[in-house]
Design goal:
about 130 residues, homohexamer, about 0% strand, mainly alpha
Chain lengths: ~130, ~130, ~130, ~130, ~130, ~130
């Protein structure tokens, strides 16, 4: 038995129900994803996370599609299956082509490699970077 | 005494010297960064890494500046000081504004957070993502 | 075919059998969990791990329930499904309420976020912390 | 030259200045730590992070001292020097004894070890944990 | 629906087909593993990765079996199920005994533990190591 | 002020002093490294770690030099400066050549890269690996 069960829309209390509706409206989807249904076990966390994501992922100096690609890049680095799958889909919905995704994955692979080459060789930071 | 010392330009063997010159020309810099000087201890690794980076970081469906931002995002996730500093500078040289960097950092923070919320609540992948 | 199969209780050699019985008695369970059955492929590792865990997780300045919450926090950070599930259950058995688990998860999320904000902004350690 | 410089109190704009004062008051300190001075480069991130931390770290089912110990545990797992140092000090200010810190570190070590033993032996989740 | 589907041998374009044949010949297998079928979505990445692996994993000062054990060690540390399973099998094919695998796993566990003890206690690098 | 100070040899209590002497004898060194001096703050952890390392790192199906290379590989993956430096030196003392270290670093880089390519492309485990 899982420790936390998803809070289905039909069980949702007022504040949670309100956020569920906002998520569906903002994302143009008909069902609340499991991530939010699980967070709803702790309404405070559900609200803080939704509010933060809206702020962080909105269009700014970076377009939302670029922000989603960065999100997938981090999730790939951390091996988070749920986030890789959901944010890859979100990236595509926001305009990412498969080619953009593949190029991002190649960059993520190289970065994870050179991050470790730096450690293995204990590379000291050059003066111009300090 | 460090296990590996940087191979200074004056010590560089032919193949290494050739790559050093190419790096300086491509990056429009006058000194070879420590990362390459350390990799030069293993010429095979120096060559493979330089060749791979040229291929992976070139302009494609994604612009080089976006690729650098993704590179920093991964390096931040992995706490690689050398890579964070050097690729942040590279991103700026390729056109990233401070605002773009700050927005990328905010996304990296949120992604690292939600990646773990997914784990804590053991969120199952929705059918639409499979 | 898996490289290592679980060593079932019926196959267990003397030293392994002894540890299996101790685990079941200490945890008040009727079946040895898969973790221990897999470690039993290397009796030396089984013994060292069980002995270490008994020492590290016993009541001290911190109560066992707090130690389990810390264990889950690390396992969430490392995305270890087995450890998250088993230690969340252990935490509950030792007195953790769902509210305590949810608050711990929220802390883990924030910590993983601010750990990376520190890296992104390359924050220097204040004198008072050194 | 660092990409981002700390925003000193004397340079702080209104919203930032307000948050700086709140941080100093809440923590009973006379100088704003570098973490916040760096985040102040992006006032939106400074505000969101401060607000989130106040909510997540307040006394609830878990006492603030326990939350700080969990924060250090995650920071140790992620090798974040700034966070380890600052939150270890915060934990002590909130009542953690050195013994509590040492026991927490021992748990973090063991958890990071067994998280990998699970992976090495590809341990399957027991039915009772699902 | 997955974002990227495996490119089956029957769909493979010329360059990809060529690499598929080389992989099967080099590994003495009759079917191309899923890893390569997925990478084939980006022929450039398929080629670069195959070429790099051939260079990095060949017999040198270290035997291929030792290189595979190191590969598994890293994959265990990063919780990469696919890599743990595939490279554990590769290690066995290249001569690793179960005992060697078990001893490697024990080392990986200890290293992940002491890496964090170092962080928890903020151990300074001794002069003789600098 | 650091939370934990190294316990110098002159301050060492009986059990700690005993372990210090054993470490120096076993490693043929004249000064106890900082790692052990910091662990000595918690004699139980000092003893458990020293005992575990002796068991795990001894000659078995794998030679000590190979075990040290694996230790460095994990430490590089986790960016643990202290462990990278100290275990690289230990590897050399046990017979590792610079060439062996460089080849290990190259493997670590590739493994960290392909671990993420697997995640980015969400590669499913082949039947023959299950």
């Amino acid at each position: 038995m899982p420790i936390f069960k998803p809070i289905e829309e039909i069980e949702a209390t007022e504040k949670v129900k309100e956020i569920y509706e906002e998520i569906k409206r903002a994302r143009q989807i008909i069902e609340v994803p499991n991530f939010w249904k699980k967070l709803a076990n702790h309404p405070e966390t559900l609200e803080r996370t939704w509010t933060s994501l809206k702020q962080v992922m909105k269009k700014g100096a970076l377009d939302p599609v670029i922000k989603e690609l960065i999100y997938v890049a981090v999730s790939v680095t951390n091996s988070c299956e749920y986030c890789i799958k959901s944010h890859s889909l979100a990236a595509k919905k926001k305009g990412a082509t498969d080619e953009m995704l593949k190029e991002m994955i190649a960059v993520v692979g190289m970065a994870n490699e050179t991050n470790r080459l730096v450690e293995g060789y204990q590379v000291e930071v050059d003066e111009i970077y300090k």
